[in-house]
Specification:
This protein is an all-alpha fold. Helices cover 40% and strands 0% of the residues.
């Protein structure tokens, strides 16, 4: 026998583009439904799951290694901005395209020593061999 707990509806949270949310509200008014939940239930009841073909995805999954401090900052910033860590990571990578394209332009100095100008050491000029000696 199924328990009552399993039959009760539970909240489901997901992100949608603003245009789709506007479409939900327009359908709610047009169909005379009471809530966005009723619109979603209506759409799912009419949806043909078998005929659905997902659009091609232009994304790949990669794995990278981050220093513990950098990882902590990424996840802390994501919580502060109320976005996913992946969204911040994408924004960071996309920002590379507006910076100079030469190697090392996007790297931060590791210590204060690297911020200081380096001393220029001049090598003494080589002495030329005297002419006329045999």
């Amino acid at each position: 026998m199924a328990s009552h707990h399993l039959l009760a509806s539970t909240p489901l949270t997901f992100e949608l583009p603003s245009l789709l949310v506007d479409q939900i509200h327009a359908c709610r008014r047009r169909l005379g439904l009471k809530s966005a939940s009723e619109v979603v239930r209506h759409a799912l009841a009419r949806f043909d799951y078998k005929a659905f073909q997902p659009p091609p995805r232009d994304q790949c999954q990669i794995s990278v290694r981050l220093a513990p401090d950098q990882k902590r900052l990424l996840f802390w910033s994501a919580r502060q901005k109320k976005v996913s860590a992946g969204e911040l990571l994408r924004a960071a990578l996309e920002s590379l395209s507006i910076r100079p394209a030469f190697a090392g332009a996007d790297r931060q100095p590791q210590s204060n020593e690297s911020n200081m100008p380096k001393k220029v050491i001049k090598k003494p000029a080589k002495k030329k061999a005297a002419k006329g000696k045999k």
